[in-house]
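Why Glycosyltransferase RgtA/B/C/D-like domain-containing protein? Reviewers of the renewal asked for a concrete example.
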Amino acid sequence: MYSLKALFFDKSWTNIKEKSFQIKLAAFSTNVAIAMTLAIGLVGFLTMGTDLWDGVIVSHAVSLERPDVYHEWFGEAGLFFTPYIYDFIYLFHKAVNYELIAKIFTVFFLILSAREAAKVASKYFEIPRQMRFYTAILFYLSPAWVLYYSNIYLMHSLTLFATLICTRYIIDRKALALCIPLLLLSFQQSSNAPLSISLILLSCVFHHTTAKDRIINFGIIAVITVGFFGLRKLFPTHGLYETYNEIHFKNIVSINNYLSLTKYFVLLYFPSFIAAGLALYFQPNKKTLSVLSVVFLGILFNGVAYIAVNKIPSLSEIGLMHGESLRFTFTSTIFAILLLPAIWQSLSEVPRLRFLTLTVILIHACVINIYAHEGKMKEVLFQRGLVHEIKNLPPLPACAINIQSTGVGTLTNYEYGHILYRVYGETNQLPLGDSRDPAADVKVLYERFTKESYKKKYFMPKQMPKCIVSMNVSTSVGTWGFGKTFTKYLSDDHSAIVAVSISGTDPL
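Here is what the prediction returned.
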């Protein structure tokens, strides 16, 4: 009877031909799975032909040639630099489809971020070139990035890359005068600040071990911290976003929040955590324990920015049609994927287990990634189907449209507004997402959104509607298998996705 250690330490592994065959077999199966996954994801991402979630606000402003709408929006949220990112895309909107060019740039910066993630891995772990590539792929396969179906995340893609490359240059003591200001600009995504700090602290553990280097690093961390809070003070949230992302100390010290975050990452990267346990079993030494502990603490530390505002990711949202909580994992993902090179390094004396672990981790990531893309494809299909069915109805009156849904979650009012805008090309109806008291809700909306720019932003008619129409929407798209979803997604047939009925017109 072989023990677990004896099984993986079998001396026959030293046979060069056998070793070469095992490596090639593992690499081939893994590369095929990766290639198929990347192809499916890119096809879904680049052929959707619309926008989702908050991205519809920018998309609508661009279609109206009203960049002032999104400038005001981001300004009220304290994101002083973000509107200029979208201004660059806006420059080309007459020559190139806005949604497509925004997505191309989003993917471009995501690929650059993956490349930087691989450089982080190679800086701190003893891994071959092939492992750097697989670390970058694991980063790219994170289900968090399927949220980029909404072009609102172009800002996140760009600023994440800026944070990674600027932090790397700072750690290497290159171009500090340029990189520190650019790094502060990248804190438009607030969670980038903990990411940069945690990477610098990681450098103190593995790279900058002299007292002089560590003092310099802590000085840079102090500059980053002061700069981060200084910018928040200089560009505060105001207007509709006055209380946006308020930090509460009780959230930061809540053990339950950290347990929820830990649960999310342990379940999402379950093969990696199992492999980490095996690494400790086969190499039960201080180095292995410290490396894996540092990586795990990095995951938690990068969740603090989200925990502070009580925003925790939900594993159940990975394959759902709606839901944006995966954005609360953007920066922790950097450390989560560092488990792969850490495990590879720790299993240096167990080559059989090394390649088995690598294959399982990457194929698991492929399955999760396709599942996440499937959810967003279903969301796009639902919107396509709803647009198709409304176009086949008699024109809706200029009323508030109270929408009840079956088989799908309720969208935001402005997402419904974007759908109606795609149908009619103008904003005459006021959509409401399953309101229990439409008259009261309409009144509140017009009392709150008094500015003309607010009405443009949220697809509201200039004058308050005086009538209400009930619309019932039902779909079974959420129950479709991947094959049916993908083939329907690529077709031009948008029928038989959604059923729509109108139940009457009543005065408000």
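DSSP finds 23 helices and four strands in the chain. This is the kind of structural detail the renewal will allow us to pursue systematically.
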